[in-house]
Amino acid sequence: MHEQAFRQDDVAESELVTRRGTFRAVAFRADGFEHMALVFGAAPPREDVLVRVHSECMTGDIFGAMRCECGEQLDSALDAIVREGGGILVYLRGHEGRGIGLVAKVRTHVLQDEQGLDTLDSATTLGLPVDIRDYSPAVRILKHLRVRSVRLMSNNPDKISALESSGIRVTERVPLLMAPNDHNIGYLTAKRDRLGHDLPQIEGCVTR
Ligand SMILES: [Zn+2]
């Protein structure tokens, strides 16, 4: 598969000083969404790069919601990249609720809270798909940054196949395991049992 290169007009790049350190922030326009890559390290390597491809989750990432583990994974991935001294976080917009959007995601929360449905059934009950995230912008971004192979921080086998089928080699999967809490154990269990995520840390935890 050959992804389109970005037009110069659709990319902008600057230094971004953060609490963790100084990143290169590269913003991209792709398919109606705007994404960002945070690149850390003096001379970013092209092989075996420590990478997180993070799906936008406003409630988790910005507001620290505890019904999913997105915010904690974002923090933990950025910490790991800085600790390692190099790496890239690709932040993908348009991925709310595995692609259904923010309003629909909040509707699924209502069904989860009122009817006890899990993260999949609450979507399908609303006639919505379970996961329609498109990872091709991440592939285009990584290729733009001249990355050839990655050590991917993820528990999601679908993300690995999406990258590999598009020509980004995944030389290692680095688990990103967050301790469960009372509010997200049901969500994590559904992700493990029904979406095939590798979440050994929740073994033995009891769903509410
Ligand atoms: Zn989330």
Automatic annotation (TrEMBL):
Does the record bear Iron in its keywords? no
For this record, an example GO cellular component is: cytosol
Q: Which GO terms describe its biological process?
A: riboflavin biosynthetic process
- In this chain the GTP cyclohydrolase II domain maps to 12-175
Residues reported to bind GTP: R52, V53, H54, S55, E56, Q73, E96, G97, R98, T119, S154, K159
Where, in this chain's numbering, is Zn(2+) bound? C57, C68, C70
Q: Tell me the PANTHER family matching this sequence.
A: 3,4-DIHYDROXY-2-BUTANONE 4-PHOSPHATE SYNTHASE, GTP CYCLOHYDROLASE II-RELATED
State the family named in the UniProt similarity comment for this chain.
Answer: Belongs to the GTP cyclohydrolase II family. In the N-terminal section; belongs to the DHBP synthase family.
Function (record text): Catalyzes the conversion of GTP to 2,5-diamino-6-ribosylamino-4(3H)-pyrimidinone 5'-phosphate (DARP), formate and pyrophosphate.
User: What protein am I looking at?
Assistant: GTP cyclohydrolase-2
- Native source species: Amycolatopsis xylanica
Q: Which gene encodes it?
A: ribA
